[in-house]
Every structure is written in structure tokens, then in C-alpha cells.
Amino acid sequence: MNIHKTYILVGLIIALSMFLGLVAHADETDQATKISFSEPIQIPGRVLPAGTYVFKLLNEDLGLHVVQVFNADRTALYATLQTIPTDRPEPTDHTVVALAQQGAGQPDALLKWFYPCQTIGSEFLYPKHEEKELAQDKQQTIVADEPTVSNSEAASGLGN
Fold first, then answer.
1. HEC states along the chain?
2. What is d(CA 36, CA 67) in angstroms, rounded to the nearest whole number?
């Protein structure tokens, strides 16, 4: 009788550890990333003031590539954006974003976001007329040493 209780106890411990292991990796599946911008940043449909935001993938199991943008503590949702998958040749250990510099008086536009260690990222979809203008703007790729992206890094040439 004691042997059966031991097997049950071991089985419960294994099941519980598997469940806790799945919960602990939740941020990797939604790729939640905290990014700070030192200046206002344009995303499709709006301009975000300088500050810290959380970018995360909505459930990709649905076959959609949707990114949500929250405030730093995830209490306010600013945007839910349809994106398309985009790739890069080499992954990095850091968050990477691509920006279009729109010129004096206009905020940089966020074009792409890559989660650390991933070669597939999210390309933001802008209306066709904006997309053509952004394609003509100077574009910079910034690899963040920290999860902070300084728009001035792009201007000083620290990005690629």
C-alpha cells in the first residue's frame, strides 16, 4: 500500500514540475520585451511619447502575426497591430529594432522588431502611402545593449 502512495506522490511531483516549467517560460512564447524610447516613436496609427513600453506577440497559434503595445507595467494597451513575419540573417542576444528617420520635427517610425536570439521578427504594416514615404527615409537598425532604444543612437550612427 505504501508503494502505491509513493508512485502517486512521485507522479504528482513530476506533473507539478512540468506545469511550473511551462509557466516559467511564458515570456518566451509571447516574446514580451520592454523597450524604452528616448524620443517619441511612430507606430502604425499613432505616435507614442518617449517612454517605456512592452511589446508582445498575441497568440501566434491562431496563424496571425499580431503585436500588442502596452505601457511599462502592462496596465494600458496602446495598440494591437497586424504585422508580417520578417527575417534577418543572424540572431543577436539583444532586442533589435529598425527605424525610419522621417526628418526634422517628425518622430522616427518603428519598422521592425526582433526578439533576442530570433531570426524571425515582426514588420509593422503602415498604410500604402506612408509605406512608400518610409521606404525613402533613412533607415537604421539598432541593437539594444539594454532593452532601451535611444532614437539618438540611430542619428549618431551606432545602429547599422
1. CHHHHHHHHHHHHHHHHHHHHHHHCHHHHHCCEEEEECCCEEECCEEECCEEEEEEECCHHHCCCEEEEEECCCCCEEEEEEEEEEECCCCCCCCEEEEEECCCCCCEEEEEEECCCCCEEEEECCCHHHHHHHHHCEEEEEECCCCEECHHHHHHCCCC
2. 16
The dihedral through the CA atoms of 145, 71, 132, 125 has a sign that is positive
pLDDT digit string, tens, across residues 123-149: 999 998 888 788 877 777 777 765 444
> How confident is the model over 30-89, as pLDDT tens digits?
888 899 999 999 999 999 999 999 999 886 666 668 999 999 999 999 999 999 999 988
Say how far residue 152 (Cα) sits from the centre of its chain: 20
Q: For the chain, how long is the longest CA-to-CA vector?
A: 79
**Cα dihedral sign, 144-145-146-151:** negative
Residue 127, all three cell numbers: 498604410
Q: For position 13, what pLDDT does the model report?
A: 39
Domain boundaries defined on the chain: 1-26, 31-156
- Model-level pTM greater than 0.90? no
